[in-house]
Amino acid sequence: MPKTMQDAMEIATKLRNKKISTLVEYKTKKRLDNTSKNNQDQRRPNKRQNTSGAYTARHGEKKHYGGS
């Protein structure tokens, strides 16, 4: 139990600072975890990878586009 108002203010300040630093550490860790997760899935496959096969035809043949 604090003996004076000054002691009570010091205790309250220390508790508040501890809570703030804990919150900052939590947010920093969460941000770093999210960053590493996002960096792992950055590469996306090319959706138009096989389009050239729809247009290939031998000389003299007409091949119509069938759609996809």
Record field, number of beta strands? 0
Distance between the termini: 76 Å
Taken in chain order, the helices and strands follow as H
Please tell me what the overall shape is.
rod-shaped
Percent strand equals under 5%
Unreliable segments of 5+ consecutive residues: none
The averaged pLDDT comes out at 76
* Biggest beta sheet attributes: none
Helix content: 40-55%
Please identify the structural class as seen in this structure: mainly alpha
Output the number of helix runs: 1
Radius of gyration: 32 Å
Protein name: Reverse transcriptase domain-containing protein
Region (Disordered): 26-68
Organism: Tanacetum cinerariifolium
What does this structure look like?
This is Reverse transcriptase domain-containing protein. Residues 26-68 are annotated as: Disordered. The protein has 68 residues and is an all-alpha fold. It contains 1 helix and no strands. It has one helix at residues 5-40. The radius of gyration is 32 Å and the shape is rod-shaped. The N and C termini lie far apart (76 Å).
Brief characterization of the structure:
The chain has 68 residues and is mostly helical. Helix content is 53%, strand content 0%.
Which key terms come to mind for this protein?
68 residues
Chart the SSEs and their pairings:
Blueprint: H1 5-40
